[in-house]
Amino acid sequence: MNLPAVSIKRRLIALLYEALLAGAVGAVAALLAGVAATLLNTVSHILASLAATLIPLVVWWFYFKANWYKKGQTLPMKVWGIGLADVSGARPPLRQLRLRFMWACVLVIFVPMLAYSALRHFGQIPPRPAFGAALVWWILPWGFALLNPDRQFLYDYLAGTRLVDVREKRKGGD
Protein backbone atom coordinates (compact mmCIF):
# COMPACT_ATOMS: atom_id res chain seq x y z
CA MET A 1 0.00 0.00 0.00
CA ASN A 2 1.51 3.31 -1.07
CA LEU A 3 0.41 5.97 1.42
CA PRO A 4 0.67 9.71 0.69
CA ALA A 5 3.60 11.73 1.99
CA VAL A 6 3.06 13.79 5.14
CA SER A 7 2.99 17.58 4.94
CA ILE A 8 6.19 19.40 5.86
CA LYS A 9 4.34 21.26 8.61
CA ARG A 10 3.29 18.03 10.39
CA ARG A 11 6.79 16.59 10.00
CA LEU A 12 8.46 19.66 11.47
CA ILE A 13 6.03 19.77 14.42
CA ALA A 14 6.67 16.07 15.08
CA LEU A 15 10.40 16.78 14.75
CA LEU A 16 10.19 19.38 17.53
CA TYR A 17 8.44 16.86 19.78
CA GLU A 18 11.03 14.26 18.79
CA ALA A 19 13.81 16.67 19.78
CA LEU A 20 12.42 16.73 23.33
CA LEU A 21 12.39 12.94 23.57
CA ALA A 22 15.80 12.60 21.91
CA GLY A 23 17.08 15.21 24.38
CA ALA A 24 15.81 13.15 27.31
CA VAL A 25 17.38 9.99 25.86
CA GLY A 26 20.54 12.02 25.22
CA ALA A 27 20.63 13.18 28.85
CA VAL A 28 20.61 9.58 30.06
CA ALA A 29 23.24 8.70 27.45
CA ALA A 30 25.39 11.67 28.52
CA LEU A 31 25.24 10.47 32.13
CA LEU A 32 26.36 7.00 31.07
CA ALA A 33 29.04 8.46 28.80
CA GLY A 34 30.30 10.71 31.59
CA VAL A 35 30.64 7.81 34.01
CA ALA A 36 32.37 5.66 31.38
CA ALA A 37 34.71 8.49 30.36
CA THR A 38 35.61 9.20 33.98
CA LEU A 39 36.44 5.56 34.61
CA LEU A 40 38.37 5.20 31.33
CA ASN A 41 40.24 8.49 31.70
CA THR A 42 42.71 6.88 34.10
CA VAL A 43 43.44 4.20 31.48
CA SER A 44 43.50 6.29 28.30
CA HIS A 45 42.30 9.74 27.26
CA ILE A 46 41.58 8.38 23.80
CA LEU A 47 39.35 5.60 25.17
CA ALA A 48 37.57 8.11 27.40
CA SER A 49 36.91 10.40 24.41
CA LEU A 50 35.76 7.49 22.29
CA ALA A 51 33.33 6.35 24.99
CA ALA A 52 31.99 9.89 25.43
CA THR A 53 31.34 10.05 21.68
CA LEU A 54 30.02 6.57 20.96
CA ILE A 55 27.78 5.92 23.96
CA PRO A 56 25.26 8.67 23.11
CA LEU A 57 25.16 7.52 19.46
CA VAL A 58 24.60 3.90 20.49
CA VAL A 59 21.86 4.85 22.96
CA TRP A 60 20.13 7.04 20.36
CA TRP A 61 20.38 4.22 17.80
CA PHE A 62 18.72 1.77 20.19
CA TYR A 63 15.94 4.29 20.94
CA PHE A 64 15.17 4.87 17.26
CA LYS A 65 15.67 1.24 16.25
CA ALA A 66 13.29 0.04 18.96
CA ASN A 67 10.59 2.39 17.71
CA TRP A 68 11.13 2.33 13.95
CA TYR A 69 11.72 -1.41 13.62
CA LYS A 70 8.96 -2.67 15.92
CA LYS A 71 6.25 -0.03 15.40
CA GLY A 72 7.32 1.86 12.28
CA GLN A 73 7.10 5.12 14.21
CA THR A 74 8.24 6.92 17.34
CA LEU A 75 5.79 8.43 19.85
CA PRO A 76 5.81 11.87 18.18
CA MET A 77 5.28 10.22 14.80
CA LYS A 78 2.32 8.28 16.24
CA VAL A 79 0.79 11.43 17.75
CA TRP A 80 0.96 13.21 14.38
CA GLY A 81 -0.12 10.19 12.29
CA ILE A 82 3.24 9.72 10.59
CA GLY A 83 4.66 6.36 9.62
CA LEU A 84 8.05 5.35 8.28
CA ALA A 85 8.04 3.39 5.02
CA ASP A 86 10.34 2.46 2.20
CA VAL A 87 9.67 3.72 -1.34
CA SER A 88 7.22 0.87 -1.99
CA GLY A 89 5.20 1.69 1.15
CA ALA A 90 6.38 -1.29 3.23
CA ARG A 91 8.11 -1.05 6.59
CA PRO A 92 11.84 -0.50 5.93
CA PRO A 93 14.26 -3.32 6.71
CA LEU A 94 16.89 -2.87 9.42
CA ARG A 95 19.57 -2.02 6.83
CA GLN A 96 17.54 0.96 5.63
CA LEU A 97 16.85 2.09 9.18
CA ARG A 98 20.60 2.07 9.86
CA LEU A 99 21.16 4.17 6.75
CA ARG A 100 18.48 6.66 7.81
CA PHE A 101 20.00 6.97 11.28
CA MET A 102 23.53 7.31 9.88
CA TRP A 103 22.56 10.01 7.36
CA ALA A 104 20.54 11.89 10.00
CA CYS A 105 23.53 11.85 12.37
CA VAL A 106 25.90 13.03 9.65
CA LEU A 107 23.62 15.83 8.44
CA VAL A 108 22.10 16.98 11.75
CA ILE A 109 25.00 16.45 14.17
CA PHE A 110 28.38 15.99 12.49
CA VAL A 111 28.22 18.54 9.65
CA PRO A 112 27.19 21.42 11.98
CA MET A 113 29.84 20.34 14.52
CA LEU A 114 32.53 20.23 11.85
CA ALA A 115 31.41 23.61 10.51
CA TYR A 116 31.62 25.07 14.03
CA SER A 117 35.08 23.60 14.58
CA ALA A 118 36.33 24.83 11.21
CA LEU A 119 34.96 28.33 11.78
CA ARG A 120 36.54 28.52 15.23
CA HIS A 121 39.88 26.99 14.27
CA PHE A 122 40.52 28.23 10.75
CA GLY A 123 38.36 31.34 10.67
CA GLN A 124 39.18 32.51 14.20
CA ILE A 125 35.47 33.39 14.57
CA PRO A 126 34.18 33.92 18.14
CA PRO A 127 31.97 31.15 19.61
CA ARG A 128 28.52 32.75 19.23
CA PRO A 129 28.80 33.77 15.56
CA ALA A 130 30.45 30.43 14.76
CA PHE A 131 27.60 28.59 16.47
CA GLY A 132 25.01 30.61 14.53
CA ALA A 133 26.78 30.03 11.24
CA ALA A 134 27.11 26.30 11.95
CA LEU A 135 23.38 26.05 12.61
CA VAL A 136 22.76 27.24 9.04
CA TRP A 137 23.77 23.70 8.06
CA TRP A 138 20.57 22.47 9.75
CA ILE A 139 18.68 24.00 6.83
CA LEU A 140 20.25 21.43 4.49
CA PRO A 141 18.53 18.20 5.65
CA TRP A 142 15.11 19.76 6.23
CA GLY A 143 15.21 22.49 3.58
CA PHE A 144 15.80 19.77 0.99
CA ALA A 145 12.11 18.85 1.45
CA LEU A 146 11.12 22.15 -0.18
CA LEU A 147 12.96 21.14 -3.36
CA ASN A 148 12.08 17.44 -3.40
CA PRO A 149 8.88 16.50 -5.29
CA ASP A 150 7.90 13.96 -2.58
CA ARG A 151 8.82 16.47 0.17
CA GLN A 152 11.34 14.07 1.70
CA PHE A 153 14.00 15.20 4.14
CA LEU A 154 17.51 14.72 2.75
CA TYR A 155 18.33 11.80 5.06
CA ASP A 156 15.11 10.02 4.02
CA TYR A 157 15.94 10.57 0.36
CA LEU A 158 19.48 9.20 0.82
CA ALA A 159 18.25 6.19 2.83
CA GLY A 160 15.34 5.39 0.50
CA THR A 161 12.71 5.94 3.20
CA ARG A 162 9.57 8.08 3.29
CA LEU A 163 7.45 9.64 6.01
CA VAL A 164 3.86 8.73 5.15
CA ASP A 165 0.43 9.77 6.40
CA VAL A 166 -1.05 6.88 8.41
CA ARG A 167 -4.14 8.74 9.69
CA GLU A 168 -6.34 7.35 6.92
CA LYS A 169 -4.92 3.87 7.48
CA ARG A 170 -5.83 4.10 11.20
CA LYS A 171 -9.38 5.26 10.44
CA GLY A 172 -9.92 2.46 7.97
CA GLY A 173 -8.09 -0.21 10.00
CA ASP A 174 -9.62 0.42 13.44
The N- to C-terminal Cα distance equals 17 Å
The average pLDDT value, as a whole number, equals: 91
Specify the overall morphology.
globular
Helix and strand content put the structural class at mainly alpha
* Residue windows where pLDDT falls under 50 for at least 5 positions: none
Major sheet strand order: 1-2
Find the count of extended strands (DSSP E, 2+ residues): 2
Query: What is the helical fraction, as a range of percent?
Result: over 70%
Counted by DSSP, the helix tally is 8
The profile of the biggest β sheet is: 2 strands, antiparallel
Strand residue percentage: 5-15%
CA radius of gyration = 18 Å
In N-to-C order, the SSE pattern is: HHHEHHHHEH
In short:
It contains 8 helices and 2 strands.
Summary tags:
8 helices; 174 residues; single chain; two-stranded antiparallel ribbon; mainly alpha; globular
